[in-house]
Protein 1
Amino acid sequence: MPTVTEGKLKFDFPAGYEIEKYDNWSFYINQFQKVAESKAVDFIVYSPNASTVWLLEVKDYRLNSRTKEIPVENEIAQKIRDTLAGMVAARSNTNVSHERGFAQRCLTPGIRFNVVLHIEQPKHPSRRFPREYDLADILQKLKALIKPIDAHPKVVEIATTVGRLPWNVDSLP
């Protein structure tokens, strides 16, 4: 069972899933990131049994509030667009065979893209750590922005992932 962490969150994926942190790829760092200041989602998850690629972005605002001026849904849409463009370029232009092979698998005709924004907020909001985001509102706005890629994206938190996604998420101490 592959496991990856992002900050204080641990993601456990089913056996057979391939998980890549695209923004750690040599191709992204050395070539593609410089293209119009490209951004990247946190994880690209390939599910061979379901012919699905999950584009997973993780935001954890439990300890630190968001400081960016761009709305979160616009930031996610940009990261999705840039990641997909980078994968298309990597399929042909990366010098790293592992990266090329993963990009080719993810871009096979018939593959379906699913977008997930995993966003954690304080469970017990306070003045210092308020619960700033309405997940349903973010979902509606994100749907409108990325409909050609995924008409049914998901905006989740640990409490809502059970049964909705093929992986488990736990909070680390």
Note: The longest helix spans residues 72-93.
Protein 2
Amino acid sequence: MVSVIFYVVYSGVSNNVNWLTWICIAIIILEGLVLLSFKMSCPLTVLARKYSDSQSHNFDIYLPEWLAKYNKQIFTTIFALGFIGVLLRTF
């Protein structure tokens, strides 16, 4: 998903907006809808919590604790900036 987000940013920065850019945007929006339907948790995290007593943010992902804790805010901001860039290049 990170590569999809960075492709949107790349498209906006390089003025290379194409059909793949719009598919990537749709994928990110779809993931956002899934997260909203699972109360801002990944469905796999909900499943993994059943099998672990750990309360750390990175118990199910290979990221540093600080990045695992704030990954939604960080990557949403990066995506939003890329999406704005794509909109500016398109319109």
Note: Residues 65-90 form the longest helix (26 residues).
Protein 3
Amino acid sequence: MPRKQTHFIQALARGLSILQAFSSDRPSLTLSQIADLTSMNRTAVQRFTDTLVELGFLVRNRHKEFFLGPQVLSLGYAYLGSSQLRRLAGTYINQAAERLGCTMNLAILDDLEVIFVHRHEVRRYLKFDLQPGSKLPAQLTASGKVLLASLDDDDLRQRLERMDLHAVTANTIVDREALWRDLMRCRETGLGVCDRELSLDLHALGAPLLNAVPQVVAAVNLSMPASDHPGPLWEERRQGLVALGRELSGLFGYQGPYPLMPTGPAQGGLL
């Protein structure tokens, strides 16, 4: 006869069953859906979810849907595959893009280009269609500037020498030393700025995604009309991007001050 587990905590097991109700197929759940999946009544589920939200293990949006929060994701970082993390990060990016009214991307560095890993388009600024997997020259994007600025000096210098710096707009930086200074400003502030360098209609901001080391493993950026810069709407979106970058960095295990731009060898990113 199996030995009875006298130290088994039923309340803890029930709380964990709520977290286990979420999956890649069910990234968000309502209170009623959680109750159905866990076979608990709504009152009990409400108490558990309120506690889990307070602790950061769940997040609740304005539609009263729950999804996994940074605390549980950072605890599970070593176990979760990178493709799962991309999908989970995408939930945060999609909601931030709709809330701020901006197109947003998650990007990684591929030599001299950025690859868009995830994209949520609210408004199209460029004549060509960008999708996950699309590439752009790194120096022409806010996320690319973040990723370039995070490289060590020798690596960055070598890549700058190999770049084809030609004017796409009148604002495109085509001088290597001027681009170097721009990237050093990015290091200092922790944010990348691309002001009408790819399109005269487009102003973009980028922020780093950090892991526990800490290292920059990816970047998130938002695009807005150039006419919104500067102004109160620009500042609101800047603050929103910083909040998102901090939250996503927590997802990857980073718990320090933000925004921060540690430098070092190029990282493999999320792929």
Note: Residues 77-81 have pLDDT under 50 and may be disordered.
